[in-house]
Design brief:
This protein is α/β, with parallel strands linked by helices and about 675 residues long. The protein contains 25 helices and 21 strands. It has a 7-stranded mixed beta sheet with strand order 10-9-11-12-14-13-19, sandwiched between helices. Strands 1-2-3-7-6 form a 5-stranded parallel beta sheet, with helices on both faces. Helix 15 packs parallel to helix 16. It is elongated. The model has no long low-confidence stretch (mean pLDDT about 95). Bound molecules: thiamine diphosphate (TPP). The site of thiamine diphosphate (TPP) has 15 residues, from strand 4.
């Protein structure tokens, strides 16, 4: 019907530009048509279709500079093709081949590529939005006239990540373009069951940002809007929300069907097909003739066939376990001159001038020196600037390093971890302070699924340290006292460090910041001001992954970390009749197995001690490893002493009873019986 035909306005676009846009939108459509054929033939296994929505991905991507980062979703083939990724390699990616973009480790569009400035989604809808915040923050700090651009579906706008990313971008005045592709459905859920505002742009009012709703099927509208919005974001240093109205012409994915969508919607939207309408208009405007179009289509078809031929040529994957494990982490060569080996008796000698420092001051010192060492290091956290942080670790930093690098954050842990990753894409280092380790639960997804997996998935490192004030003993109750290190030790891709002395706290934090991988750095709150020690004034590292032999003994080897080290020392002091050998793990991921083996060999009786609750704690892992690898060295079963398998209580007597320390007598007694 003619009255449903969309109106195109060319403004000052040349014929060449119009033709480029036409080729841009035609390509993903023709690829998809071909994919549907291959799917029917059983030559590919799965397909998420973007048919009907191509104007958004293509128009938006073509409106940006090619070095501006885009965070696309599962229907955005047009982003990838507009960035000129070769179809042959894309196809290998979709087929899970070794020579795709993720060595066969990721499916469909869940990958990124630095060269093309694309950071693909993880399956979870929403986390990619805050990564765009981080890239935009990097642009802002580097004073670059650039934007980042992130996509979400209408369904994704209900995720907390949507709110957090938009709010952070608004509060921090970040030049980010947020695009909602409102295609009417989130799988089978219609928008009427997704949100109550009239339209999704209404949400922008709540964030204090500008927004516009546009026809997402009109490529010229999309292209022109994004161009204008890009200028606005750069000039005003602000984010912008664009709601593109469109429709999903096929099922959520090909296997899921479209039974839940009323038929009339397909009929209506078919008339608004973004490719056909644009093609018709180009003919009417005499930009292209029917013959031109046929020859462009023919050339595209040939190109697709040629590329697919290469794509199908991939050799089958032969798993290489070594490579699989090696790619979990970005490699790093530690400068040996930076390392202090404090496992020696004379641990504080040979490292220049020393000062007596509290545990907390050693942490501040490490941050301070790292800020000087790395001009690209950004610190983020709640109340860390003028207020100096909940524990005053960053007191005075904002005066020294400015608001740009020492950043108070809104209450949005997920967005800040995502922002840290975005900074990393642009070559920054980021440190985020969790106000309490307990609150990491609301940033969990970003750590576990984005930070930890990104290097293995597509080779991008996450140069991020998350500081975690942890632990009990301070009467702070179930949500300000937890030991949650085991959650992270179970996540390949993270490194987990947990110092127990001021010297280690400083050296390990410097090492964590220098490490290009995501490091979860636990700092026990009860040690902050109760433990002091000699700390070198110099900038130095303690090697991540190296345990420390704290005390030689003959009766029992205590393998522990964090507060456990002080418990063990305290226990030894109170029981001179007992000779305890003490090993401080210092790093929980990766574990120092050689040090564990040596500890076992020294006494043959092992107690693994930690403040974390017993079941599923690190003790289980260490005990299992010893049983498997050191059986012949043992004179008794490995014993564990952990805290009660309950939440950590508030009342100080209850808390004492909860703590592993209250059961040390019992366990040691048992161990000595053997
Ligand atoms: C956190 C999370 N919950 C659920 C899903 C399962 N899921 C995948 S796509 C999808 C619908 C998404 O809808 P929308 O955001 O509107 O994007 P569209 O698929 O329509 O492009 C759902 C529920 C998921 N991937 N992630």
């Amino acid at each position: 019907m003619a009255n449903l035909r969309m109106q195109f306005t060319r403004k000052d676009l040349s014929n060449e530009q119009l033709i480029a846009l036409y080729k841009g939108i035609l390509f993903p459509r023709m690829i998809e048509d071909k994919m549907l054929v291959l799917l029917r033939q059983g030559r590919i296994s799965k397909w998420f279709s973007g048919i009907g929505q191509e104007a958004i991905a293509v128009g938006a991507t073509m409106a940006l500079d090619s070095d501006e980062w885009v965070m696309p979703l599962h229907r955005n083939l047009g982003v990838f093709t507009s960035r000129k990724m070769p179809l042959s390699k894309l196809f290998k990616q979709w087929q899970g081949n070794k020579d795709g973009y993720s060595k066969g480790r990721e499916r469909s569009f869940h990958f990124g590529n630095k060269e093309h400035h694309i950071c693909g989604m993880i399956s979870h809808l929403g986390p990619q939005l805050a990564i765009a915040d981080g890239v935009a923050l990097a642009h802002k700090l580097q004073k670059e006239s650039k934007v980042s651009m992130a996509f979400t579906g209408d369904g994704g706008t209900s995720e907390g990540d949507f709110h957090e990313a938009l709010n952070t971008a608004a509060v921090w005045d970040l030049p980010v373009i947020f695009i909602i592709e409102n295609n009417g459905y989130g799988l089978s859920t219609p928008t009427s069951e997704q949100y109550r505002c009239k339209s999704l742009v209404d949400k922008a009012v709540g964030y204090g940002i500008e927004a516009v709703q546009i026809d997402g099927n009109n490529i010229l509208t999309v292209y022109d809007t994004i161009k204008g919005v890009r200028d606005y974001c750069i000039k005003n240093q602000k984010p912008y929300l664009i709601e593109c109205m469109t429709f999903r012409m096929r099922g959520h994915e090909e296997a899921s069907g479209v039974k839940y969508v009323p038929k009339h919607l397909f009929e209506e939207w078919e008339k608004k097909d973004p490719v056909k309408n644009f093609e018709e208009w180009l003919k009417e405007e005499k930009v292209l003739t029917a013959e031109d179009i046929e020859s462009i289509r023919a050339a595209t078809r040939t190109h697709i066939e040629e590329e697919l031929k290469i794509g199908f040529e991939s050799a089958p994957i032969v798993p290489d376990t070594e490579e699989e494990l090696a790619d979990v982490y970005a490699s790093r060569l530690v400068a040996p001159e930076l390392l202090i080996d404090n496992s020696e008796e004379d641990q504080v000698s040979g490292a220049g001038i020393h000062s007596e420092k509290k545990f907390i001051n050693a942490i501040s010192d490490a941050l301070d020196l790292s800020l000087q060492k790395h001009p690209n290091l950004v610190l983020m956290g709640q109340d860390i600037a003028e207020y100096g942080g909940a524990f005053k670790v960053t007191e005075g930093f904002v005066e020294r390093y400015g608001k740009g690098r020492i950043r108070n954050t809104p209450l949005c842990e997920s967005a800040i971890v995502g922002t840290a990753l975005g900074l990393s894409l642009k070559g920054h280092k980021a440190m985020m302070e969790m106000q309490f380790a307990d609150f990491v639960t609301v940033g969990f997804n970003q750590i576990i699924n984005n930070l930890a997996k990104i290097h293995y998935r597509w080779g991008q490192n996450a140069d991020v340290v998350v500081r975690m004030p942890t632990g009990g003993g301070v009467g702070a109750g179930p949500f300000h006292s937890q030991s949650n290190e085991a959650w992270f030790v179970h996540t390949p891709g993270l490194k987990v460090v947990y110092p127990s002395t001021p010297m280690d706290a400083k050296g390990l934090l410097i090492a964590a910041i220098n490490d290009p991988n995501p490091v979860i750095y636990f700092e026990h709150k009860a040690l902050y001001r109760s433990i002091s020690g000699q700390v070198p004034d110099a900038y130095y590292e303690i090697e991540i992954g190296k345990a420390k032999h704290v005390q030689e003994g003959e009766d029992i080897s205590v393998i522990t970390y964090g507060s456990g080290v002080h418990w063990a020392l305290d226990y030894a002091g109170k029981h001179p009749e007992l000779s305890l050998d003490i090993t401080d793990l210092r790093t929980l991921l990766p574990l120092d197995y050689e040090a564990i083996r040596k500890a076992v060999a020294r006494t043959g009786k092992v107690l693994v001690l930690h403040e974390d609750t017993l079941t599923g704690g690190i003790g289980g892992e260490v005990a299992a490893w010893i049983a498997e690898h050191c059986f012949s060295l043992l004179d008794a079963p490995v014993m564990r002493c952990g805290s009660l398998d309950s939440p950590i209580p508030f009342n100080i007597e209850l808390e004492k009873n909860f703590m592993a320390y209250s059961r040390m007598d019992e366990v040691i007694e048992k161990l000595l019986q053997y």
